[in-house]
Amino acid sequence: MEGVPFLDTETELREFVDQFPDIDDEQALAMLARAFDRPAFRTAFHQESNLPAFQQAIDDTIRVLSTGI
Fold it and tell me: If you compute the radius of gyration of the chain from its CA atoms, what whole number of angstroms results?
């Protein structure tokens, strides 16, 4: 989250998660869902008229899932 590199061990990951006690699973999922709430993911692929925008949406979503930014 927020640009912190993904941790390698289970212990490191648990310690990192414990730093955010006020965020429950539902809130975390809601934050991730925002990455997918964009027209590129609601428009049928065969109707997509702006390929660069679609590619940017994919790139942004991968970045969110990888880094949390």
Answer: 15
